[in-house]
Amino acid sequence: MLKKENILLVDDDIDILELLQRHLKSMDYHTYKAVSVKEALYILKDTEIDLLVTDINMPEIDGLELVKHVAEHYPNMPKLVVTGFPSVEDASSVIKHGATDYLTKPFTKVELELAVKKALASKKGKKTLKAPPVKPALNNSYGDMIGNSEAFQKVTEIIDRVKDNRATVLVRGESGTGKELVARAIHYSGKYARAPFIAVNCGAIPESLLEAELFGYTKGAFTGANENRNGFFQAAHGGTIFLDEIGNAPLPVQNRLLRVLQEKEVTKIGSQKAEKLDVRVIAATNSNLEELIQKKTFREDLYYRLSVVAVDVPPLRERSLDIPLLVEKFIQKYGIEYKDRFVRIAEDALEVLKRYSWPGNIRELENVVQRAVIMCDGQIKLEHLPDELKYKIDFPEKGFKTLQEKEKEYIQEVLLSTQGNKTKAAEILGINRKTLREKLK
């Protein structure tokens, strides 16, 4: 079986990246994505790339500098530039700086395929030089998710079961656990990956607008409807629509959504004509839908339609085995972005991150690592972590503990319960803030 070529796509426009990825995946290429030159440099250091496809106009460092870097350090790697240059002179200038070829915007899928094949053919018989890896590749990843824990593996097993069919999926989990990442993994790892993926946050759109945004409307359907307009469901035709915070959807929207799921068709507001629809629905919630059903704010029949397959995303406190991997991932990401180099983490600092309960889950962990990378000088130490994390270290038992040790543990427990609020902690402990500060020292 022939090896798939690895193509690195670089563009600060996420939509363009996803479009390129869909097209190239349908052509049986393997792709890596980078939204900046810095991120692209990290991928190049750690991955064998057969072709670079890059935009020119990007913030901080433009694509031309990336082309020059690749021409110098990876001389046999073809470089395809996506450019808006209309003239032969400008295009020639790009090629003089090291580009193998260029593709002018806007372009069709056929034009992209021809340009990629031409660029790859230019390296036939040559071997691309690969820089030695700086760090070992992160393993056991699925899309943008990563983990080794049993809880993580259970989620990926369900993804594997549903990725190639149209079954409706309900993703449940606390805020910050990565529910949208699960939805994207289902879509982009399956056979419908080349089709659209439309993400809608039902809690972020005003109730008065959500119905129109989802299902579309006709001219004159309501005040301000000055034209016929498709909704998110029509835009997702052939692909996947992801409905985040579905528990916030008002009852009129739930009624229409139930019909979409039952009849496989959608009717715009103001129209009597139903349109056939081929779309997979993935919904997500951090609410208890069963409780909402009891309160009569969520339809029970819709709940059963949505939860044909349910994915329960575990909180981070149940995935402690995955914390070092996630920390490494975020350190690599933000080290390149903020420091233009790799950042390390001290063992005692990592131990604190492993022992913390993470009420904000992966989103909170990422924020903590991001801040620590900014504050450190190449190595994350205890001093770069928030106080409320440092106070939650579970010290091992060593026989009987001294009164001072027990007091220390109790103060840590109180601080954890108040989420690091020293004023509240002092009130509970029956001491003033000054005394608490002294004890913390």
Characterise the protein shown here.
The protein is of the alpha/beta class and 441 residues long. The chain has four domains: 6-121, Response regulator (Rossmann fold), CATH 3.40.50; 150-312, 3-Layer(aba) Sandwich (Rossmann fold), CATH 3.40.50.300; 317-390, Helicase, Ruva Protein, domain 3 (Orthogonal Bundle); 403-440, Arc Repressor Mutant, subunit A, CATH 1.10.10. It has helices spanning 14-26, 37-46, 63-73, 88-96, 109-121, 150-162, 179-188, 207-215, 232-235, 251-263, 289-294, 300-306, 323-339, 347-355, 361-375, 387-390, 403-417, 422-429, 433-440; strands at residues 6-10, 30-34, 51-55, 79-83, 101-104, 141-142, 145-146, 169-172, 197-201, 240-244, 265-267, 274-276, 280-285, 309-312, 344-345, 379-380. α13 packs across α15 (361-375) and α17 (403-417) packs across α18 (422-429). Mean pLDDT is 84; it is low at 125-139 and 394-398.
Largest sheet: 5 strands, parallel
Distance between the termini: 63 Å
Shape: flat
Adjacency order of strands in the biggest sheet:
2-1-3-4-5
Helix content: 40-55%
List the total number of helices. Answer: 19
CATH second-level architecture of the largest domain: 3-Layer(aba) Sandwich
Give the full name of the CATH homologous superfamily of the largest domain. P-loop containing nucleotide triphosphate hydrolases
Mean pLDDT: 84
Poorly predicted residue ranges: 125-139, 394-398
